[in-house]
Amino acid sequence: MKRLVIAVAVLALAGCGGEAVVPRGQGAHGHGASSTAPPVPAASARFNDADVMFVQMMVDHLQLGVSLSQVALAKATKQEAKDLAGAIDATQREELSMLKSWLKLWGKPEGGGADLHAAHGGQPLLDDKVIDDTKNKNGAEFDLSFLNLMAGHQGAAVEMALAEKKDGMNPEATSYAERVVSTRQGQVSQMLKAISGS
User: Which residues form a coiled coil (predicted)?
Assistant: First the structure.
């Protein structure tokens, strides 16, 4: 599993730099957390089907990321894993609130993200069952599992964001997609370094 997820994450990073989201020693409120995140924009009413699909899929994606991050905050033993989980939890909660407000403005439902994943390439790497299974792991085994799962999960966010940049028309949604590409690539890079040092 370790090699599989690393391969997925490396593909997501191919040709891209991306800075680490949590510099060493800064803890959960480092780069990428609420203290340095850009202001939350309100979306304009101009959008297309690609924008709606992206936002709905990201709502589902972010909720799963927050769930796994909460488990890691309680169980991770490596400080770097805890720091990453804290930054991801804080940032993705803010993003969830923003994206849900956009869907409300557009008159679109929040649900359906998991079904959209299935319709566009299969089930996501992370789901409630995987998260529950991860809860049963402890110590170094948990840390490695968390880092692998989250690296693959954030790599998938990059793929969704790249599709939105290509096909979306809402300026706020495409700008958010740009930010997702940058921040998630940084997170994946940092998680791969943590995995290789395990």
Answer: none
